[in-house]
Write a structure and sequence with these properties.
mainly alpha; 3-stranded antiparallel β-sheet; two-stranded antiparallel sheet
């Protein structure tokens, strides 16, 4: 009969859809973290709990694969249908496959939240979408980290320098032949740039909150008695002065005064590699980058709000 499916056809179709969803959840994802946390050696980065991240570290300004991985567990804790054949050790333990997709989404929600209003969960993490589902060896052979940061793990200290370096790389990519690889690389560069801007906003706003709280009287619940290692690190990365220094002058003046220093560092890093780009064009990019970092967030008045406890 036209328009009907047999029971066998229905049974055959349903698992295929489920298998497709399962396959997508297992696809390798590629993340880029532009933020930083105290405690890691150069170039910095952040430790994570996910067993799908090799070494459980998101290194600063590096492309990091999130890979589906077998995980040992008690059999009673393994979801139905997830136990991997041949892994039962006879002692109540076996392995299941921890899918990369949900793990990546969890980290993105915590450290790269799409909601700009939740700036406390926007630490500078993005997915490099052009490479989703690509094989680890294929992406490794592209040397993405080395292409965008030739001296990695040596990196500029500030977000402004990192951002300017990426802007120069983008200018270089625009001169490449127009093909799929060029478009993928431009998309990757744009996503890296958005990660740096996200990290800048999070770090600068964290410092601004601390600068307010440290002026509170000791009796106030929101009082911050002193700055810690995270504050000091964020101050270096974001070029946002801590209160003891910001009271001596306008922070935007300090940013402007640092333009020449940032320009010198960026030129030293990129000019030997980008002979085709006029140094004056690089200077223009750096100046525009510094101005952009001084602007408040597009949403809101740019003023830090007191921390609620």
């Amino acid at each position: 009969m036209t328009g009907t499916q047999s029971a066998f056809e229905l049974i055959e179709a349903a698992p295929a859809e489920l298998a497709s969803q399962e396959q997508q959840s297992r696809e390798t994802r590629y993340l880029f973290f532009a933020g930083d946390e105290p405690g890691l050696p150069s170039p910095g980065g952040m430790e994570v709990q996910s067993k799908c991240v090799p070494g459980r570290v998101l290194w600063r300004c590096a492309v990091t694969p999130v890979v589906s991985s077998p995980v040992k567990s008690r059999i009673v804790d393994i979801p139905d249908g997830r136990l991997l054949d041949g892994t039962d050790d006879g002692k109540g333990r076996a392995s299941y496959l921890l899918a990369a997709g949900p793990e990546a989404e969890t980290m993105l929600a915590e450290y790269g939240n799409a909601d700009r209003a939740q700036w406390q969960r926007r630490w500078g993490l993005v997915e490099l979408t052009a490479w989703r589902g690509k094989g680890v060896r294929e992406v490794r052979d592209l040397n993405l980290t080395a292409f965008f940061f030739p001296e990695w793990p040596a990196l500029p200290d500030s977000n402004a320098e990192v951002l300017a370096q990426l802007q120069v790389k983008r200018k270089e990519l625009e001169s490449f032949p127009q093909d799929k690889m060029r478009e993928d690389m431009l998309t990757t560069c744009d996503e890296m740039i958005s990660a740096v801007k996200m990290a800048q906003e999070y770090q600068s706003r964290t410092i601004q909150q601390g600068n307010i709280r440290i002026t509170y009287p000791d009796s106030n619940d929101g009082h911050k008695p002193s700055f810690d290692s995270k504050d000091e690190l964020f101050s270096v990365r974001s070029k946002t002065a801590l209160a003891v220094n910001s009271l001596r002058g306008n922070q935007s003046d300090a940013m402007t005064a640092g333009l020449e220093q940032v320009l010198d560092k960026v030129l030293a890093r990129v000019v030997p590699q980008q002979q085709s780009i006029d140094p004056q064009a690089i200077a223009t990019i750096v100046a525009a980058t510094m101005q952009a970092l001084q602007k408040p967030d597009d949403k809101g008045d740019g003023k830090p709000q007191p921390v609620k406890k």
